[in-house]
Design a protein that fits this description.
668 residues, mainly alpha, Tetracycline Repressor, domain 2, flat, Vps53_N, Vacuolar protein sorting-associated protein 53 homolog isoform X3, Vps53
Length: 668
């Protein structure tokens, strides 16, 4: 029974000891051995044959067996030693673990002891600091307080998790009480030095107030904001008195005095109080910004009261001076306080990054912008991305209707002047060398449009631009009607508007009724002018969309005006076609009325053919030369004339009576 169990154990052991080739190779490299018993491919039969190669060698079998048994005992001893060694390792590990646990306890004790000592030191510092803070506060030693208070607050942060301890909580409450007392005391000191009512304190600032500002930097931000607010309010109190609404200097014509006053005040502040406030408070900029807010409010109020007194010249003057002042602020200050909650920022409605604001009106058109031509054009400040742009000038936007109405009036007068000039000077002279001349009035109109667009976009890119666009549309249509369509040639009996059928009714059958050379040139000139207006109106629409606010782009649409100019072009071409067509009608009529049955001889050229050719040679070269700059419309004229003349020629051809047999034979 024991032998069977040992055999099973050996088989299981052999199964367990079947190692992979890689593991076996690694073992051989670590423990090299020449013993056959250590080989992975050990063969018992070969090993026995090696020990007993011959029958005579069996005589030593007992000795060999004893050696093998001795070797087995040694292996057993080695295994036993290793196993016992592993048992001792576990005991040693447990012993080391106990030592480590003791060391950790010592480390924790050391750490806790260090923390306790540090906390006690902080507590001692906190208690002493609070006592000193209270004493210094009473003596107004703000310079020492500024340094001590920050340290006390830093130390107090270490005790945040110990606020459940009554003594710690009491110290924290004393610190808060000291901060509150400091804030109230500093505000009282500033109120005493710069009272809300009365004159400013004479002389320069005291060192006490300068140190108090350092303390305010550490206290609740509302203390700093209150100091800034009260100081600026007191500093600008004189301004509100000098420029009250009922004062003569408060009106727009003396707006320069407002800006001159604040410039003097800024210089005065730098000299007297520049070192009292910390540089990071940006007090000079804050004073200027608050001045702008006050000025915007005051100007808006007085302009509402005296709205009827605002004239365009005065309005543009005030806007110019204001935008110049905003440019001055942009050069001197960074605008960092505009995003600060201490002083409310104003959102500018004016265009500060418009790509076309660099455009300047031409000198010859300056006089068209004003009543007397002596008003300076308000130019954009040269500083790019001006953060102050609109901070004051926003107040003028509700009154820009005055500017729009002025432009409406000016454009109406301009159109009337164009009409009068055309009547006085007559149509342009025929110019067959350079093609049909564009009427100079259209160039003047669009130059003025450009000037108005640039000027208005400097004032606002909102609703006023839409209103100006409406004015542009109105006078584009008036120009098309009064200058272009209204000056197309008419017969002496025509009393109404342009009707081509009535215009040519009296011409039919009469050589005298044809348009003269001057009239043909005028029609071509009006056609060329209408084409120029059509193209320029499209460009005008694009630039208006670039200048106006994004939300208003959809309201810019000059399609109707472009269609009006297209109608003028079509009418001009049709007028030229029907003039030539009507001139050829007598010849066609003569052709159809000829007694073809009496024709017996064929001549070189019939009189009606000569007449048609003559009219074509007279009109077409003139039209071609005068439409040299607009070849596509000359091509349209030729196509329309051919489409009109050929069917008419065929119709008259069918009206001809048969020719005589003799004539037919001659023709054949």
């Amino acid at each position: 029974m024991m032998e069977e169990e040992e055999l099973e154990f050996v088989e299981e052991l052999e199964a367990v000891l079947q190692l992979t080739p890689e593991v076996q190779l690694a073992i051989e490299q670590v423990f090299p051995s020449q013993d056959p018993l250590d080989r992975a491919d050990f063969n018992a039969v070969e090993y026995i044959n090696t020990l007993f190669p011959t029958e005579q060698s069996l005589a030593n079998i007992d000795e060999v067996v004893n050696k093998i048994r001795l070797k087995i005992r040694r292996l057993d001893d080695n295994i036993r030693t290793v196993v016992r060694g592993q048992t001792n390792v576990g005991q040693d590990g447990r012993q080391v673990k106990e030592i480590t646990r003791d060391i950790k306890q010592l480390d924790h004790a050391k750490r806790h002891l260090t923390t306790s000592i540090t906390t006690l030191n902080h507590l001692h510092m906190l208690a002493g600091g609070v006592d000193s803070l209270e004493a210094m506060t009473r003596r107004r030693q703000y310079g020492e307080v500024a340094n001590l208070l920050q340290g006390v607050m830093n130390v107090l942060e270490h005790f945040h998790k110990y606020m459940g301890i009554p003594q710690i909580r009491q110290l924290s409450e004393r610190v808060k009480a000291a901060q509150t007392e400091l804030g109230q005391q500093i505000l009282a000191d500033f109120e005493e030095a710069f009272p809300s009512q009365g004159t400013k304190r004479p002389g320069g600032p005291s060192n006490v107030l300068r140190d108090a500002c350092l303390v305010a930097n550490i206290l609740d931000p509302r203390i700093k904001q209150e100091i800034i607010k009260k100081f600026i309010k007191q500093h600008l109190s004189e301004y509100l008195v000098l420029f009250q609404e009922n004062q003569d200097v408060a009106w727009l014509d003396k707006i320069d005095r407002r800006y001159a006053w604040i410039k003097r005040q800024l210089v005065d502040y730098e000299e007297k109080y520049g070192r009292m406030f910390p540089r990071e408070w940006y007090m000079t900029e804050r004073i200027a910004v608050e001045f702008c807010h006050v000025t915007r409010t005051e100007l808006a109020k007085i302009m509402r009261t005296r709205a009827k007194e605002i004239e365009v010249k005065l309005l543009l003057f005030a806007i110019q001076r204001t935008t110049n002042f905003e440019g001055f602020l942009a050069k001197r200050f960074s605008g960092c306080t505009l995003t600060d909650g201490t002083l409310k920022k104003i959102e500018s409605p004016l265009a500060s990054t418009n790509p076309f604001l660099e455009d300047e009106p031409t000198p010859e058109m300056e006089e068209l912008a004003t009543e007397k031509g002596d008003l300076d054009h308000p130019k954009k400040p040269k500083v790019p991305d001006n953060p102050f742009h609109g901070i004051v000038s926003k107040c003028f936007e509700p009154h820009l209707y005055v500017y729009i109405e002025s432009q409406d009036k000016n454009l109406g007068e301009l159109i009337d002047r164009f009409v009068a000039d055309f009547k006085a000077q007559g149509p342009p002279k025929p110019n067959t060398d350079e093609g049909g001349a564009v009427l100079p009035s259209c160039a003047d109109l669009f130059v003025y449009y450009k000037k108005c667009m640039v000027q208005c976009s400097q004032l606002s890119t909102g609703e006023p631009m839409i209103a100006l666009t409406t004015i542009f549309q109105k006078y584009l249509r008036e120009y098309a009607w009064k200058i272009l369509s209204g000056n197309l040639p008419k017969t002496t009996t025509s009393s109404g508007g342009l009707t081509i059928s009535s215009l040519l009714k009296e011409k039919e059958g009469s050589e005298v009724a044809k348009f003269t050379l001057e009239e043909l040139c005028l029609i071509c000139s009006i056609l060329s002018t209408a084409e120029y207006c059509l193209a320029t109106t499209q460009q005008l629409e694009e630039k208006l969309k670039e200048k106006v606010d994004v939300s208003l782009i959809e309201r810019i649409n000059l399609t109707g005006e472009m269609d009006t100019f297209s109608t003028v072009i079509s009418s001009s071409i049709q007028l030229l076609v029907q003039d030539l067509d009507a001139a050829c009608d007598p010849a066609l009529t003569a052709m159809s009325k000829m007694p073809w049955q009496n024709v017996e001889h064929v001549g070189d050229q019939s009189p009606y053919v000569t007449s048609v050719i003559l009219h074509i040679k007279q009109n077409v070269p003139i039209i071609r030369d005068n439409l040299a700059s607009t070849r596509k419309y000359f091509t349209q004229f030729c196509i329309k004339f051919a489409n009109s003349f050929i069917p008419k020629f065929i119709t008259h051809l069918f009206k001809c009576k048969p020719i005589s047999m003799v004539g037919a034979e001659q023709v054949r």
